[in-house]
Write a structure and sequence with these properties.
3 domains; 7-stranded mixed sheet; alpha+beta; single chain; 410 residues; Chloramphenicol Acetyltransferase
Amino acid sequence: MILEVKVPVPGESITEVELGAWLVKSGDVVEMDAELVEINSDKATLTINAEGAGKIEILRKEGETVRVGEVVAKIDTSVTASETTKQPAENKTASPVTPQQQVSKEAGYAQGVPSVSAEKLMREQGVKDSSISGSGRGGRVTKGDVVEHLKNQTSVSEESKASQVQSAPKAETIHPSGRVDDRKKMTTLRRKIAERLVSAKNTTAMLTTFNEVDMYEIMQLRAKYKDKFKEKHGVGLGFMGFFVKACSEALQQFPAVNAYIDGDDMVYHNYVDMGIAVSSERGLVVPIIRNAESLSVLGVETAIRDYALKARENKITIEDMTGGTFTITNGGIFGSMLSTPILNPPQSAILGMHNIVDRPVAINGEVKIRPIMYVALSYDHRIIDGKEAVSFLFKVKEYLEDPARLLLSI
């Protein structure tokens, strides 16, 4: 029997996608539900999985634009792994080896087949040993696994350096001076991000207001309870949980910040679907925490952890990112001191977090050193007045500087 591998519908109004990296080779025998190929839409990177086991024939190449429903490969279910992978007679009692595991063993990996980005990084860095254990699904080696492995290395061998040079991308232009220009095609997701950012700047009356937050009380609270919190709930107690709670409480007091413009109408929500900007290998994605106003700090931290794991393996779906009434982005994890975040349409506001720095501040007439974070609220002035924006941000500041009040919702 021949199974056709068709491009699924990745989301509403999407009619075509760009084929990403094939995770198998033509002629491989794949298992049911095995990941076959990545597809890049204008909203996310997804994978197509095998609907049956058998020998695969690839029909379309990486980088091609294909329509939803188009056949990109075929699977011959009459061919099984047992027909192509024979075990030595003395190893008859051993567990059968899947084609993916066989490829992994031949390549020298400790676990499952590495992701495309992981394999590329391994080639570039000359990683050839089998000491990397995969943390992805089915033991798959992710890019994060390789990065962690490289951090633990004390030096780079000459062989690694040679591998880096050999695997360097082909130059588009080489100048007489030896300088190189490298031209790469933008992915569908990156193009869409660029379009949305330009559109947000050109179609909204965007303005940004700033404030500073004394993080002392939250840091004291975390220092006291984070170990017990992690031990009891299995999830870390981070800053984002407090920020989501603070914004959710403040949004209910300033509903215009949680609204959007639709033609000549202003649409208000009695709920908070909080977008959390997450950096992935494919670019910035914004998964949504639904009904954030009803979640505890534990519920928020659990949702963030789950999305972070999905982003690491490029498993975030269109449904995960659909909707959203307000967004938080954290540039502080990259060391940003201050920035003006761009709106995520049709939302009317976005909060930017930044790094925490010890600064001298005046407290009760005395100068003290406190951990200070600058926060920024970008908003659409067409629907949110300056007074509302400033008052909202100040309310967020009040909640964060008195976390007990925040947790008690008073």
